[in-house]
Amino acid sequence: MQPRERADWLRLARTENIGPVTFRNLIARFGTASAALGEVPRMAGRGGAKIFVLPHENAIA
To answer: Residues near 28 by Cβ (< 8 Å), separated by ≥ 6?
Structure first.
């Protein structure tokens, strides 16, 4: 796994309200953590979330 994809996996895993089952489903649906991260805010909005925050890229070390 490339460092960028590993960082995206960590960001997705550390996102509030995304547990292990949702994480696995997002990876299965979108193929990569990068693609899932791009879709999570849209999906959260469709689910009624008023505020949604992804962990910042620089917060993952």
So the answer is: none
Burial class (CB in 10 A: 0-12, 13-18, 19+), 45: exposed
Instruction: Tell me how many domains the chain contains.
Output: 1
Give me the sign of the Cα torsion angle 60, 15, 56, 5: positive
Average pLDDT value for residue range 35-44: 87
State the pLDDT at residue 52.
64
In the predicted model, is pLDDT for residue 57 greater than 80?
no
Is position 50 within any domain?
A: yes
Domain coverage including residue 49: 3-55
List the structure tokens of 45. Answer: 């909005």
Considering the entire predicted model, what is its pTM?
Answer: 0.76
């070390």: which residue's tokens? 61
